[in-house]
Amino acid sequence: MESTSTSSISPASLLRRQIATKDEIVVCPGVYDGLSARIALHAGFKSLYMTGSGTAVSRLGMPDIGLTTLNDMRDNAALISSLDPSVPLIADADTGYGGALMVGRTVAQYMRAGVAALHLEDQVVNKRCGHLRNKELVSEDEYMSRIKAAVNMRTKLDGDIVIIARTDALQVFGFDVALNRLKMAISLGADVAFLEGIRTLEEAERVCKELHPTPVLYNMVQGGVSPRLTVSEAQKIGFKIIIFPAIASRAAFLSITKSVQYLKETGDFPDETAHVGPASLYSVCGLDEAMEFDKAAGGKSYEGGI
Predict the structure, then answer these.
(1) Does residue 142 have an active-site annotation?
(2) CATH 3.20.20.60 in the chain, residues?
(3) For residues 188 and 151, is the Cβ–Cβ distance under 8 A?
(4) Is residue 148 helix, strand or coil?
(5) Among the options 94, 122, 168, 203, which is catalytic?
(6) CA dihedral in degrees (239, 20, 156, 107; nearest 10)?
(7) Which of 33, 92, 168, 203 is catalytic?
(8) Is 115:124 a contact under the CB 8 Å cutoff?
(9) What does pTM read for this prediction?
(10) How confident is the model at residue 4 (pLDDT cuts 50, 70, 90)?
(11) N-terminal to C-terminal alpha carbon distance within the chain
């Protein structure tokens, strides 16, 4: 059951308030489906991040090498954002999935899906995960066309979505070129800067300093190329948003692998999962709320409980 929470404040406005809150950093666990999102919401997170990598591996069963389409990403974002509209969702939008017209369509569909923010990057359409090697980038002009198309569509629809400019130019062209791309994107109307593949603490500190007061996002990928930063460490450096895109998918990969291997070897399930009955799982996914809604409408299906 989707959340019954209502608010006159748009998801983008909620996120803008979080970003603007002094002495705080927006912390977003990466989620990739309804269950991972429900678990993060149950834990009390006030914002979420929909990972493109997690979407690729969960919805397609394929690696993050540019195989997901706009429809794959939009549908997943719409599902996640609908669970609790009071918790803003930042969603990966890859390259925008084409030229300026497709970027505009992507922005419009993400806005209609209730997404608070999206990030657009400067890789070629057949992109790959930002923490893999040998990435190919489009020209500066083509990247700026993507950002301008996103900003123009937001204006045309008279709505709001936070536009995050991501560049992967650091690995390909170096820090100065990457920084210049971000500065140009900001001048066109991007709200947040995202330097992908940061390699050192010095680069992390410099990008925050050079782009201040524009908010900068840090991508904390487990096992990736960037330095491992805690929330407090990232905040101290100057980042206003930190995402942990692989926090759920890596945990699921490890736990499911362990459980199915145990089943294969022993013919039984691991003891640590024995206490997790259906009610425990469904409770995190909104069971109590659904029962209360049914009761308020005069339903009697759950009078005896579950």
Answers:
(1) no
(2) 11-253
(3) yes
(4) helix
(5) 94
(6) 40
(7) 92
(8) no
(9) 0.93
(10) very low
(11) 16
CATH number of 11-253: 3.20.20.60
Phi, psi of 55 (to 5 degrees): -65, -40
User: Buried b / exposed e across 210-240, counting CB within 10 Å, b at 16+?
Assistant: bbeebbbbbbbbeebbbbebeeebbbebbbb
For residue 83, pLDDT over 50 is answered with yes
- The reply to whether 154 belongs to the active site is no
Closest of 250, 249, 196 to residue 220, by C-alpha: 196
User: pLDDT tens digits for 140-194?
Assistant: 999 999 999 999 999 999 999 999 999 999 999 999 999 999 999 999 999 999 9
Q: Identify the active-site residue in 84, 168, 196, 203.
A: 196
Mind listing the pLDDT tens digit for each residue in 37-71? Answer: 999 999 999 999 999 999 999 999 999 888 999 99
Q: Select from 33, 139, 20 the least CA-distant residue to 78.
A: 33
Per-residue tokens: 14:
């909620």
Active site residue 196: yes
